[in-house]
User: Which sequence fits this backbone?
């Protein structure tokens, strides 16, 4: 590449870009000679600014120790202490283990509220709901009844929706904020798992070192270090994700693209195998539960794949894979619904059957909505935003059902 070649292609923007990408260093060297000879060229002026541009404002990335760091640190310590105290009462069998969720969730919500500068009305509402949930949960008798177990099982879903309300803040009604919360969950899960694995390695190494000197610190280390660290790490991970860490953000789209086809192929093979061996969800209760577990997994993979789709609204193979997953999920849900209705009519109403029926109806309606919008998208009748709306606008309904099961089933069925 020389100065003459650059001058010959001066009026060909595509060729100039191609030359630059092929060898940026040689391009810059030749450009400096051409620029000295042609300082009045507007085309060269644009390229000069591009090659020599320097940000006049502060280009430093925000430090991890700037905004919100002290608040995050304080909340992390409080979460660790609170979780340790709750665990003490769990060990004494004075309260249910699900109370450990209150050692983490309110503090993550508090961090979201701090960063979003949320309105006081929303803050008071969230605080009241957390308090009511905690008080109500501990008014339930410590027994093994199905209705109580269902309350324990659905409470985390309700708390997750409260975290979503704290995350979206004043923009809780905006689809973009709800979509951001779903993306946050995937990035948060990846980051927390990565740090948790590192913590587990450190814990194993520490306990082994103490074994070498004849001390067994497993019980003490778990109760006072691991438990505290796991709770504090939950706040730290939320802080790091909110700092736009590139690690999690860069990997999540690839996870969605890789796992979607793998899940689709695996489930098709699995369902074919189920038909071959003659498993019957109508009569086998455990298989029906497994069927519903598969349904929830497919729904989660589909939702994350949709939220990680490109916003350029170009159709890709991933869109057709998503449609395949939705069709598969609808088939599974339809079979599960039929089996649940059969069991209800044959064996009567129980808390478990009623709760599973409600969840399956909600998921079926959600999948139908997503399917309709996806078909319209593939037919160029709507954009990707309509599909994402079908996902984000439905989230509060899941939270509402979780609240109904948590707060009414123990009263009705007891």
Assistant:
């Amino acid at each position: 590449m020389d100065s003459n070649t650059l001058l010959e292609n001066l009026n060909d923007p595509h060729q100039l870009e191609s030359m630059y990408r092929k060898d940026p260093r040689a391009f810059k060297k030749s450009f400096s000679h051409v620029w000295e000879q042609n300082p009045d060229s507007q085309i060269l002026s644009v390229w000069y600014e591009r090659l020599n541009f320097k940000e006049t404002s502060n280009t430093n990335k925000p430090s991890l120790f700037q905004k919100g760091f002290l608040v995050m640190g304080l909340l992390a310590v409080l979460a660790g202490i609170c979780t340790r105290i709750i665990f003490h009462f769990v060990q004494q069998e004075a309260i249910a283990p699900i109370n450990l969720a209150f050692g983490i969730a309110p503090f993550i919500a508090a961090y979201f509220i701090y960063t979003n500068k949320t309105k006081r009305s929303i803050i008071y509402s969230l605080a009241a709901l957390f308090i009511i949930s905690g008080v109500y949960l501990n008014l339930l008798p410590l027994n093994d009844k199905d209705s109580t177990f269902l309350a324990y099982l659905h409470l985390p879903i309700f708390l997750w929706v409260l975290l979503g309300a704290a995350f979206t803040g004043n923009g809780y009604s905006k689809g973009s904020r709800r979509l951001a919360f779903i993306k946050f969950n995937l990035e948060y899960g990846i980051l927390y798992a990565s740090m948790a694995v590192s913590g587990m390695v450190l814990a194993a190494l520490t306990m082994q070192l103490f074994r070498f000197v004849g001390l067994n610190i497993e019980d003490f280390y778990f109760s006072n270090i691991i438990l505290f660290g796991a709770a504090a790490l939950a706040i730290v991970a939320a802080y790091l994700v909110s700092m736009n860490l590139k690690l999690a953000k860069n990997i999540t789209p690839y996870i969605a693209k890789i796992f979607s086809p793998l899940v689709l192929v695996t489930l098709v093979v699995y369902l074919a195998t189920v038909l071959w061996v003659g498993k019957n969800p109508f009569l086998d209760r455990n298989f029906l539960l497994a069927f519903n577990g598969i349904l929830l997994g497919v729904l989660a993979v589909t939702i994350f794949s949709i939220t990680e789709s490109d916003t350029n609204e170009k159709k890709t193979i991933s869109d057709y894979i998503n449609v395949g997953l939705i069709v598969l999920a609808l088939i599974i849900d339809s079979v599960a619904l039929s089996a649940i209705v059969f069991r209800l009519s044959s064996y009567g109403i129980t808390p478990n059957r009623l709760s599973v029926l409600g969840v399956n109806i909600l998921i079926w309606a959600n999948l139908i909505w997503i399917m309709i919008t996806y078909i319209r998208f593939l037919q160029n009748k709507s954009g990707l935003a309509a599909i994402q709306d079908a996902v984000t606008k439905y989230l509060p309904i899941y939270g509402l059902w979780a609240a109904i099961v948590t707060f009414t089933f123990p009263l009705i069925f007891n």
